[in-house]
Write a structure and sequence with these properties.
four-stranded mixed beta sheet; alpha+beta; 14 strands; 25% strand; 29% helix
Length: 370
């Protein structure tokens, strides 16, 4: 197989023109699309309906392009939208396609090339969100997808994107009718628990934590447990976990590689550089024009440091009652990443519970091989 990845700008959450032009120009076959990740310009919180809006127009477009129902299109293509394009972050879609052939991988990078696979867990009951059933189902799905993608060595796993559900008032009300209680009744906090449980599921599948270390009580409490490859994003538009794994595999050809690092905090430019180098881009402190063209996209997680400090200096992101801390964090990390790669159109998602160290987060780079 050969992975093909395209990044296209988005003028609004319902703008699929960039994706449509790829198909209509012949650069991309609609039937080969497997996953689309988007950064939409909503608030990234519970009531961010820009994510569902983009999902709708994308599934509608591909239903028509493939002559199938919209439900079939949603089952066939993983649509993972992350809300919030604060600061200089530019709204965009990243389209992932898989086609047969592509020739053998080059000898560099151990003869391995970008590989990916997508799938959906079962739908969760509201009382399972933020608890071990969600973590265990995520781990099971990640293992399955690694096998499908031919990623046999966990060291070749570089990024796992999970779109997970959240709790609403209506979903919370339904749990007592089944004699159950939800993990948390604050709908915004439910996003954190869902992200955290999903991230620990990734960590379990990747061998970063042991099953004996995990429990309901550990989720969003034991911050020593974390994944260096998980990127989880909660949304109102689904009740399952939608999972896509990315790595390098000898079973795939083509000209793309993925590498990653982990940002220790929101200002960690060294980790951005390390991720670029992991994807085959060696440089001093400035990418050449040719190297910038080789960067397909950067995928990063971030959060406001929970202790209120960045490198010993007090920050106020957690104390702002007008703008949520995740929105501040996305703006900061996008600016840091953009300052290195020279492009603000990168994928930065907020809320990094159990995703890297507190205040930091994983960062991955997809690049064209030299």
């Amino acid at each position: 197989m050969e992975a093909k990845v395209f990044r296209v700008p988005m003028r609004s959450p319902d703008d699929v023109q960039g994706v449509a032009e790829l198909v209509e120009s012949g650069r991309l076959r609609a039937g080969e699309v497997r996953c689309i990740m988007g950064k939409t310009e909503g608030n990234g919180c519970v009531n961010d309906f820009s994510r569902g809006f983009s999902n709708f127009v994308l599934s509608d477009y591909f239903a028509r392009a493939l002559n199938i129902s919209r439900r079939e299109a949603e089952a066939r293509i993983s649509l993972i939208m992350s809300g919030g394009t604060e600061g200089a972050m530019s709204p965009h879609f990243t389209v992932f396609a898989a086609s047969p052939g592509g020739g053998p991988a080059a000898e560099e990078s151990g003869g391995k090339r970008l590989a990916f696979a997508s799938g959906h867990t079962r739908e969760f009951l509201p009382e399972e969100i933020g608890r071990m059933p969600q973590a265990e189902a995520t781990a099971e799905m990640v293992r399955r997808l690694m096998g499908e993608a031919g990623i046999g060595d966990p060291s070749d796993l570089h990024f796992v994107q999970v779109k997970c559900p959240l709790l609403t008032a209506e979903r919370i009300r339904g749990a007592p009718q089944r004699g159950k209680g939800v993990r948390v009744e604050d709908t915004y906090k439910s996003m954190a628990y869902s992200r955290g449980a999903s991230a620990l599921g990734v960590a379990l599948a990747a061998g970063e934590v042991r099953a004996a270390q995990l429990s309901d009580e550990a989720i969003c409490r034991d911050w020593s447990l974390a994944s260096g490859v998980a990127s989880t994003s909660a949304g109102i538009e689904l009740m399952c976990n939608e999972v896509t794994v990315f790595g390098n595999s000898p079973a795939w050809g083509g000209g793309l590689l993925i590498g990653h690092s982990v940002m220790r905090d929101a200002l960690d430019r060294d980790a951005v550089k390390a991720a670029l180098e992991s994807a085959g881009l060696a440089f001093g402190w400035g990418l050449s024009p040719e190297q910038r063209e080789r960067v397909v996209n950067v995928l990063a997680k971030c959060e406001a440091s929970p202790d209120g400090l960045i490198r010993g200096r007090r920050h106020t992101m957690l104390d702002d009652s007008d703008i949520n801390s995740t929105r501040h964090a996305r703006a900061v990390v996008n600016a840091v990443v953009a300052s290195v790669v020279g492009d603000p159109m990168v994928y930065v998602s907020g809320g990094a519970e159990h995703q890297g160290p507190p205040g930091g987060g994983p960062i991955a780079v997809i690049a064209r091989a030299s």
